[in-house]
Amino acid sequence: MKILFIGNSTEGTLKQRCIMPCKYLDNADYSPEINIMTMQCKTYVNIFGTMKMQVKDMTSYDVIVLQFAWDDDLVFLISRLIKLGIKVVIDLDDDYFNSNPYYPIDYSDGRMDNLIKSISMADLVTVTTDSLAETYGKYNNNIIILPNMIDIDEFDLNKKLPFAFVVGWYSSGIRFEEFRSIVEGWIPENVSLYLAGSKIFENFKHEFKVVRDRFSPAELPDVLSHISIGLIPLSLCKFNDGKSDLKYLEYGAMGIPAIASPTEPYRKLIKHGVNGFVAKHGRQWTKYIYELINDNDLRIAMGKAARLVSESRDIKKNIKLWEGAWK
User: Fold this and answer.
1) How far, rounded to the nearest angstrom, does the alpha carbon of residue 80 sit from its chain's CA centroid?
2) Burial (CB count <10 Å: 0-12, 13-18, 19+), residue 140
3) Mean pLDDT of the residues in the chain
4) pLDDT class for 35, splitting at 50, 70, 90?
5) pLDDT bracket for residue 70 (50, 70, 90)
6) Distance (Å, rounded) from C-alpha 313 to C-alpha 253?
7) How far apart are CA 223 and CA 212, in angstroms?
8) CATH topology of domain 152-312
9) What is the phi/psi pair of residue 34, to 5°?
10) CATH for 2-146?
11) Which are the contacts of 314, defined by CB distance < 8 A and separation ≥ 6?
12) How confident is the model at residue 41 (pLDDT cuts 50, 70, 90)?
């Protein structure tokens, strides 16, 4: 079976939803490839006969996997592929119908209508969470949940830095206001804080902090090596119920116990007090940070339990989920 993954993003979602499945599907039964397109994708001349630029012959593939296909060209491409008998999969890992109030995005330019058309036409829709299955299942009954996974081999516990307690968090700058609104003032002032992903984090009010600018996905293990307690603060909204539990898996891969907001994925994954903590309001962030600092045995045990969860979500152990979907 020949599969073409068409990535429509160069962010972390490209790695999770295209690169890792492609890597571990590469065997005698599958021949996967990846092609990254821009947001204004141009289609292929050999299928349409109208474009001047020829990039790749798609007719030799059995399955084409596209990320959030909402461009005019991609809608047209999907209709042509289906007529040619090529199976089309739309993969989605965010809820584009329910915006996060901290960074609302205006999709009134026609992209949402295109996305609905793409989803409705697709042979299969794959998503990362139950909430996304509910959102997009309204437009296509053939929907499969393929949870985000990690490649556990990328995370070496031996590279964890030996140091005093450091509370940490990493993300893109767009999520800074959400982070600040939830935990600013609740991280004990005598605790070191490590923030990675944007220089804007310098604006977070905390005396003992280190801020690291943007980093590549390959540098994530190094970022995590600086952290001993991980934070996952999220506002309670439908958009975040659709976000996956990936950050917990990444913390856990380095044996880092995490404290998370009670969004749907973390309520399901975390056994409170066993493999992590769920903080429902400000004071609880402080309480659980202190518990992990003051109880060495708890912190170590919780980190080990988190690592076991992460190992269970290793892409190599779960690649059959992708095989089953494409078959």
Assistant:
1) 30
2) middle
3) 89
4) confident
5) confident
6) 10
7) 9
8) Rossmann fold (3.40.50)
9) -125, 135
10) 3.40.50.2000
11) 149, 150, 151, 152
12) very low
